[in-house]
Design a protein that fits this description.
elongated, five-stranded mixed β-sheet, binds S-adenosylmethionine, alpha/beta, 11 helices
């Protein structure tokens, strides 16, 4: 009897997988991985193959979403499907799991450390105060959806923080600056005061690596700052508790003068006059 196990690899390199994930992956007959939803910037498929003691076959989006390769392999043997972060967080792999389940194949999910929660921890923001996560795509000719702007607006209206995940296309990783410029372009079109150069934002890079970094400030200041290497995420805070403000000062370089305005004003990330 075969089995399909989704293994979360965590955030940065081959050491971020859980001990259970490592042991299960080593016991699989076949290992597949995908790096189109996210990447481990501190390692390579070759290194992963060494650690797991078997070849890791990296699949394209088409192979995962359009084909039967993974499901067919899991009919007869134990197959591991390796995914950066948590395998089910901000991915569509539940569809693959359902396909396997419908084919009568046993499935399991071994969770991994996810950027969706690690970002809150790095910044000192409270995870239960985040609203809907938004995703910012690389704009293309005639394609610049405004759903990220709309999602941000809804979260701000509910005083909630917003996590913005940034697009990956092959070896192109959207930077937080590109993400902010995307939202500023939509602001220029819609003029609803949702995301302006005066908005308070946070940017975080290389979560989970020894060189992880995080910054908080007004958008116009962040856009002038040289950011560290990707992967990046962007956070737009909603209403901030005073302890969250203190964390942004302590851990993300939020200027004290701006912090004082936030505490006095109840912490809106709308433009502060
Ligand atoms: C589509 S989401 C997938 C999230 C992944 N499944 C997880 O649980 O972390 C990928 C996006 O998350 C963010 N991200 C993932 N890992 C990151 C890291 N180590 N540091 C910063 N951002 C990261 C980036 O914006 C990246 O484009």
């Amino acid at each position: 009897m075969g089995e399909l196990i989704f293994v979360g690899l965590g955030l940065h390199d081959e050491k971020d997988v859980t001990v259970k994930g490592l042991e299960e992956a080593r016991s699989c007959a076949t290992l597949f991985a995908e790096f189109f939803t996210s990447r481990l910037m501190g390692t390579t498929p070759e290194r992963l193959s060494e650690v797991y003691g078997r070849d890791v076959q990296v699949l394209t989006r088409e192979e995962v979403e359009g084909g039967d390769l993974v499901v067919d392999a899991a009919r007869e043997k134990k197959v591991g499907f390796l995914v950066a972060g948590d395998p089910m967080a901000a991915t569509t792999h539940v569809e693959l799991r359902l396909r396997a389940h419908r084919a009568g194949i046993k499935t399991r999910v071994l969770p991994g450390v996810s950027s969706l929660t690690a970002v809150a921890g790095a910044l000192g923001l409270q995870v239960y105060k985040f609203g809907r996560t938004i995703s910012i795509p690389f704009p293309e000719k005639g394609y610049r959806p405004w759903s990220p702007y709309q999602g941000l607006q809804q979260n701000l209206d509910a005083n909630l923080h917003t996590l913005a995940l940034l697009d990956i296309k092959g070896d192109r990783y959207m930077t937080a600056s590109e993400g902010m410029e995307y939202l500023l372009r939509l602001e220029a079109d819609r003029s609803e005061g949702v995301f302006t150069p005066e908005t308070l934002a946070c940017v975080v890079g290389r979560l989970g690596s020894p060189k992880a970094w995080q910054l908080a400030g007004r958008v116009r200041e962040l856009l002038r700052t040289r950011l560290g290497p990707p992967l990046h995420v962007l956070v737009v805070p909603g209403e901030l508790h005073f302890m969250e403000v203190e964390c942004l000062v302590a851990f993300a370089g939020l200027p004290q003068a701006l912090a004082r305005t936030l505490i006095r004003g109840g912490g809106p990330s709308r433009p502060i006059e």
